[in-house]
Amino acid sequence: SELIRGFLLSGMPCPSSCPPGLLALMAPGLALMATFSLPSQAGDRRALPVEKPPGVKGRTLILLDVNTKSPVRIISENFLSLQLDPSIIHDGWLDFLRSSEPSAPRTSSPARGAEPGCSCAGFHRRCGAAAAWRRWDGQRAFSLLGLAISLFSFPFAVDIVRSDIALDKQKGCKIAQHPDIMLELQREKAAQMHLVLLKEQFSNTYSNLTLTARSLDKLYNFADCSGLHLIFALNALRRNPNNSWNSSNALSLLKYSASKKYNISWELGNEPNNYRTLMGRSVNGSQLGKDYTQLRSLLQLIRTYSRAHLYGPNIGRPRKNVVAFLEGFMKVAGGTVDAVTWQHYYIDGRVAKVTDFLKTRLLDTLSDQIRKIQKVVNTYTPGKKIWLEGVGMTSAGGMNNLSDSYAAGFLWLNTLGLLASQGIDVVVRHSFLDHGHNHLVDQNFNPLPDYWLSLLYKRLIGPKVLAIHVAGLQRKPRPGRVIRDKLRIYAHCTSYRNHNYVRGSITLYIINLHRSRKKIKLAGTLRDKIVHQYLLQPYGKDGLHSKSVQLNGQPLAMVDDGTLPELKPRPLRAGRTLVIPPLTMSFYVVKNVNALACRYR
């Protein structure tokens, strides 16, 4: 039940020295990023071909160095962020959200996931197709027509189990425990609702979902007591006869929230390029830009929100028509939003196979999308922050024993590497807990493989991205065949919030998609340094389909409901060659490098 706590408190700065993180309660997701680069380009993942000496066959020796003088990118400290699906309102999990007090002693819990001390977590966003069906009905109830809820994380703990979150910070955020029988009944209810929601998703027909004022109070108090920042996506589907946005519902909600002095950031709708499917008529980018301008004007009329952050347009995959939509939006409202947002799902979860997660061509699809988004944004608002505000390995809710398995981690870790190396400021993972199979924990709140992967990332990876210099021995490709590298290496400064490592240390993370082991020799500034290895492999007989993982040969599992296991590294002697097993993911902290780029924040 401490899973979010462990994640949020991993390697984040104290509230006095960092901006709030965002934990978006919408349907999109989070990500981990890094890059394999040549000496001249930080984002290129191709290894530098070197002529093979006579007699060397089938063996790859990689010489690896890192540019330690200056970072090639600096991403947000809230880079890796989480979402909660809106279905937690529908299926009853909202009433089981729990916030632990900042003085809580359980610093090793899964949701805490960091060394003791202050921290800021990433964004938590909530949306998805269901988020398009929310509104304020005048009776202090919100129908879920285009509502999104996002939570920026501050330094406290967050539990999702066994508590009533009708909390009041003025009263010390005390929590009420639920008996086990209530939790079991809730699981049964959620399982039944899971089938209903999947049916709606596959048929693309959604029922209204009412969020009462009491529910909003619960959400906000949960966020506030947990040190999170709430982001709320307003209903964009309420339209006037001329197709302009009808803001009366939103204004009522804004006034209510302001009367409670709720510190909230805002969005408007979700995947607006799909509104024709949802409501039978479309909204173009120019019109949505006008709607965002109207929302900004409303916010400025309310003192509490005159300086509130506004994010959007949260478009879908940037195909040709969606790129045109974004261009229309940016022309009108590019200067209105604080960050430009979009979503990405790699493959249809209904037809995915385990081999799909090993295809380098699939891993590289995100790069093209990033370039398309950046081209449009930089044309109209150069330097504007870009967020991937919804990412999942599979769409359509994912597939059991696949999108929640070890194999999905290859896509996830590579996503983090690509985004960080290409300057995307924040990525929001879909989702921490929902009705599908893209989540980080199961219905019993047991961590899934991507949770442990994300937790290690939070603990070990800092916001400074470093360029990698690679040379090696490779087999000659067959004539006319495209070389696509199956060994992906990314480097960052080690998180300065991890007190186990002095500033100036460097963390590598490596994806080996080969079916054979690969050897890496650290060179240059990394030569003859002590290395700590964190090797993640599937645990059990299910192999890549496994929902359990082992760290350096030891299975990872919760010690109890409130305690994370210790994530122990395996020390490697100075100068030792790194041996990367086949089909694995791993982190390597190179200690005491004294990298100039990493000495200071």
UniProtKB/TrEMBL annotation:
GO cellular component, one term: membrane
Annotated signal peptide: none
Coiled-coil intervals: none
InterPro entries (alphabetical): GH (IPR017853), Glyco_hydro_79 (IPR005199)
Pfam family, one: Glyco_hydro_79n
Gene Ontology BP terms: extracellular matrix organization
Listed GO MF terms: hydrolase activity, acting on glycosyl bonds
SUPFAM superfamilies: (Trans)glycosidases
PANTHER family (UniProt xref): HEPARANASE (PTHR46145), INACTIVE HEPARANASE-2 (PTHR46145:SF1)
Similarity field: Belongs to the glycosyl hydrolase 79 family.
Designated name of the protein: HPSE2 protein
Organism phylogeny: Eukaryota, Metazoa, Chordata, Craniata, Vertebrata
